[in-house]
């Protein structure tokens, strides 16, 4: 599998480490059901068949975190971008210099 790093270009997957699901959000520790929410956050995972967003670390290259959209059935990658771009888009600061 080749992962298209936005900085280094297409690279072999052996240069990367997969962290896992990029769609998870950490629960609020002050919530009344925090213990149950953290249990689900840590131990319960979906096993999707099809397109899935994952976090990958390019340790053998530019040392950047990437958000990769990969089809779990075929391993075809349809999108790869810096994970920092994901967090700035969520904060509404995507157009900064």
UniProtKB/TrEMBL annotation:
GO molecular function: sarcosine oxidase activity
Pfam families to which the protein is assigned, alphabetical: SoxD
A Gene Ontology BP annotation from the UniProt entry: tetrahydrofolate metabolic process
Transmembrane domains' residue ranges: none
Protein name in UniProt: Sarcosine oxidase subunit delta
Organism: Azospirillum griseum
